[in-house]
Amino acid sequence: MKDTVALITRMIESGKPHQIITANPIMVMSALENPAYLNMMKSVDLIVPDGAGIVWAANYIGNPVTERVAGFDLLHQMMSHGESKGWKVFLLGASPEIIEAAALRLKEQYPALQLVGYRDGYFKTDEDMQVIENIRSHHPDILLVGRSADTQEPWIAQYKEQLQVPVIMGVGGSFDVLSGKLKRAPALFQKLRLEWFYRLLQEPWRYKRMLVLPKFAAKVIREKENVQKP
User: Fold this and answer.
1) Rounded to an integer, what distance in angstroms lies between the CA atom of residue 103 and that of residue 109?
2) Residue 171, SS3?
3) 3 state DSSP class of 150
4) Which residue in 68, 90, 104, 203 is a FRET match for 76, CA 20 to 30 A apart?
């Protein structure tokens, strides 16, 4: 986590646009099934091991990561660091009610944070340029994007250069947790790497997505020797 925050700091100081992905097994399986998604993941500037399954897989194949860098925790580290650095932050995603509540919560937690703007993620393709111009007009250093899984990272990759924001990171359902709509998994669930199960208890409709997890584990076990081959 410390190294990640240091790298993000250098990204912001460079002024050039960078995309960060907080990777989980569902993203990896999507990449294996969709060449365009795979190419997109290969093109980003930084991928951090967010999902517990990614950390397990790295350990299983004998190339362990130092620690899990959970996207939600990284978000808070960025906001805390941003207070002292004077970073400007823009939030994009979720519903109008959720994103407003998330913005208010962040300002309560980090009163010195320069939260320069926010807007919901419910816009159509023909509105993309309008949204991009709105974001650019606020000159943020960090753009946090929380949209649907199939839209979030590809949208960032498509418009990274137009956005010209030094750090753009997809945050998935983090706005739901920030707003108070959902609760983050208790420490015990996090320690046992069962955050996905706690999320499922709160949102049972997500079960279809969760069916990918055993497929991911089976593939890692079955193809252990080939996991890191290009």
Assistant:
1) 10
2) coil
3) coil
4) 203
SS3 193: coil
Distance CA 58, CA 74 (A): 20
Q: Please provide residue 227's backbone torsions phi and psi, each rounded to the nearest 5 degrees.
A: -55, -40
Of the CA atoms within 13 Å of residue 217, those in its CB half-sphere come to 8
Rounded CA-CA distance 76/61 in Å is 30
Q: How is 51-87 classified by DSSP, letter by letter? A: SHHHHHHHHHTT---SS---HHHHHHHHHHHHHHHT-
Q: Say what the pTM is.
A: 0.91
- The 10s digit of each residue's pLDDT in 74-97 is 999 999 999 999 999 999 999 999
Is 74:1 a contact under the CB 8 Å cutoff?
A: yes
